[in-house]
Amino acid sequence: MGKRDKQSRKYCHKALTPIRAIMDKYPDGIKDIHSISEEARALIQIKVQQFRECIKKVHFPNKPVWWEAMRITRNKIAHQEEDWSDSVLTSILSTVSSNLTKIEYDLNTNIKRYGQDSKKKRRFENLTSSALGSESEKKQFVDAMEEYTNPTIPEDVRVEFPKNKYSELGASVLKEISERDNILNYEQSHSVLSENIQTDILEWLEKVNKYLVKEDPFKEEAIFIEQQKLRDSEDIANDLLKDSSKMEYHYKRLPSVSDSKRGAIEASTVNFDFYHNQFIKESKIVKSKNDKGEEIELLKWKSADKLEILKRNIISDLEQNLIDRKAKWELAQIDSMRKEFLEKLYSKINKFMKLERLLMPFIKNLGRLWDLSEGTFETSGFEILDTFAKLLDNDESLKELADLLGKQSRAQISYEKELRNKVVIKSSWQPKHAYKGEINGLRYSNDISSVLPSELSLMNNPAANKLFQLKFAQKQLLSYDYQRLEEEQEESKEKEEISVEKKEPKGPIIMCVDTSGSMHGTPENIAKTITFALSKIAIEEERKCYLISFSTGIQTLDLTDFTNNPIGKLVQFLRMSFHGGTDVSPALNHAIKMLSENNWKNADVLMISDFVMPSLNNELSIQIKSQ
User: Fold this and answer.
1) Separation CA 581–CA 516 (nearest Å)
2) For an engineered disulfide with 279, which of 174, 192, 237, 442 has Cβ 3.0 to 4.6 Å away?
3) Is the separation of the CB atoms in 329 and 218 below 8 Å?
4) Whole-number Å distance between alpha carbons of 75 and 71
5) How many C-beta neighbours within 10 Å does residue 289 have?
6) Where does the pLDDT of residue 250 fall: very low under 50, low under 70, confident under 90, or very high at 90 and above?
7) 546 neighbors 510 (Cβ within 8 angstroms)
8) Which of 577, 600, 582 lies closest to 590 in space, CA to CA?
9) pLDDT digits (tens, 9 = 90+) for 489-535
């Protein structure tokens, strides 16, 4: 989504807000303009101006039919310093009221035209449940989150958060986490962090909705109530007037909230005794005879209309009671999930800040730090990374070595032919028309207009006239030399072929680190520091980095496999003690084998060791030399 498109979408949301504010306050319009207060008049004036200023920044493929009416209205009042007259205010309200449905439709249609660059945000807007809001509301919520963390947008002109349950929940979480320990200022200077916090909140809202739907303990009760709506009022009345066990099953112990399932869920508080008594009042016993001629008593009803009213009332009470108890349950679940989510999110933010401090000089893609901060990472892990980062900073020789390794190029430089445009400028001298020119000196010519007066005097002297004619014929008349030409430059483009150095991506790094007992002490610190430095450089340059630690056996670790918490595994390596004997062959064999694989064939292999070890066998030496 381009910058103009993004702005257009946000201003669609902003334009809807003031219009809805007017219509919410006056849903039936204003019949008598004198009936509203001065404050209300001022509010209407401000809201209409806000609306017009917003739609000025909205790009429509085709201007809506109401656009011109709003433009004319705005122009009439734009430069008025005094309050609007009654007639102007009535005209504005009439224009807004008569076009409100069309305005909402056109703005919402325009909002739908624009998607999101972020896949996670686009998924939230288009593919999540409608329980999270309409498509327009979900897009408004995403835009509101973006503007909340944007320091350049004043608070009073930001996109407002939609008025629905999940939007308000997400907004409260975003505000709470942002206000904690001044995180908002940190977000505003770290767009990657802000973006990841927003997408985490969106994913959490979807998770909350799915949990509430899946674990809803009121499903059966809701179905039961819907079934009652389909029954006759007499059937419901009969149920309430039957024996207590029947009445108990249908009403006092609803199917989804039986004692075995209820737990902390409140029981229904509908007053069934009241309805029982009301149905009794509407009933009467009529004596009749059956087919055998025996006298029997039949239950009859005094008024079918009153039975229908009682049915509607009891179903309404059941529904409202269900809504209230379900809302309480949802609130408790959301509160619990909210606390857990905030703790995890705050922990991730803290880890992100710490990882940025430790890895920032060596990393460009801060989004990876957010992925790394999601896994479990103990405080001691940060401490040991900090220790080796300081060791690297304070040792000039280690910094030099790390910098050298990070900038290694391939031994052979390859070149490739490339065509590029070359600009050629050519000069040419052209006569300047209708311009005699500037005197540049003297010359010989037969140009009468530039001949010197002394030469022209020969023509008037009978004795010298023939000399003048001879000079004229031979173009030997002394004349002024005028500069009448001007330089014109012409640009043209030509193709030229040049040889340029072929830029190939740097290959992976394979480190073979000696962890035997002889490395204990300073060599161990050097080995660990270089391993730490190279892993950070690999992250920065997006190079694969692989660690093979060896003593009597080997252990391997892909330090750039972000799916398996590489930083945590690196910490484990930095913590380990070096001990055991030295057998370098398995490590070198493993490295040579990796060099034959496509993903590692261009790798640089670094051996870190004190080289207190047996000599290599001939076969291994030959393989190393060939590589």
Assistant:
1) 5
2) 237
3) yes
4) 6
5) 9
6) very low
7) yes
8) 600
9) 677 777 777 766 665 567 788 999 999 888 888 888 888 888 887 77
In this structure, how many other beta carbons lie within 10 angstroms of the beta carbon of residue 107? 23
> Hey, is 315 helix, strand or coil?
helix
* Amino acid identity for residue 351 in this structure: K
Distance, CA of 447 to CA of 501 (rounded, Å): 61
Neighbouring C-alpha atoms within 13 Å toward the C-beta of 218: 23
Decide: 326 and 217 in contact? Cβ < 8 Å: no
Distances (CA, A) of 324 to 164, 229, 602: 17, 19, 66
Three-state secondary structure of 354-393 = HHHHHHHHHCCCCHHHHHHCCCCCCHHHHHHHHHHHHHHH
Structure tokens at 337: 């999930």
pLDDT at 562: 58
How far CA 9 is from CA of 2, 134, 168, 494, in Å, comes to 11, 15, 20, 45
Instruction: State the burial class of residue 131 (Cβ atoms within 10 Å of its Cβ: 0-12, 13-18, 19+).
Output: middle
Q: Which two tokens stand for residue 14?
A: 């902003």
Mean pLDDT rounded to a whole number for the chain: 77
Residue 222, H or E segment: helix 219-230
In the chain, the amino acid numbered 591 is: A
Number of residues assigned to the chain? 627
Is 422 within 8 Å of 612 (Cβ atoms)?
Answer: no
Q: What are 420-453's pLDDT values in tens digits?
A: 777 677 776 666 654 566 677 788 888 888 888 8
DSSP letter at 249? I
Count the neighbouring beta carbons within 10 Å of the beta carbon of residue 187. 24
Q: Which two tokens stand for residue 192?
A: 């990657």
* Gap between the Cα atoms of 330 and 217, Å rounded: 10
Maximal C-alpha separation, the chain: 174
What is the token pair recorded at 64? 């809506």
- Whose tokens are 């190029």? That residue is 409
Q: Do the beta carbons of residue 299 and residue 198 sit within 8 Å?
A: no
Q: Per the structure block, which two tokens stand in for 193? A: 């962090």
Whole-number Å distance between alpha carbons of 481 and 445? 9
Cβ distance 445 to 503 under 8 Å?
Answer: no
pTM to 2 decimal places:
0.56
State the distance between the two ends of the chain, measured CA to CA, in whole angstroms: 48
Q: Per the structure block, which two tokens stand in for 313?
A: 């009332």
Amino acid at site 116: Q
Alpha-carbon torsion, ordered 149, 152, 154, 160, to 10 deg: -40
Buried b (16+ CB within 10 A) or exposed e, 378-397: eeebbebbeebbebbeeeee
Question: Do the beta carbons of residue 56 and residue 37 sit within 8 Å?
Answer: no
Rounded Cα distance, 212 and 207, in Å: 9
DSSP H helical ranges for 373-485: 379-394, 396-406, 453-460, 465-473
Q: Which of 331, 334, 337, 318 is nearest to 256 (CA)?
A: 318
Helix (H) or strand (E) holding 604, with range, is strand 604-608
The alpha-helical segments, DSSP class H, found in 37-85 are: 38-55, 67-77
AA identity, residue 358: L
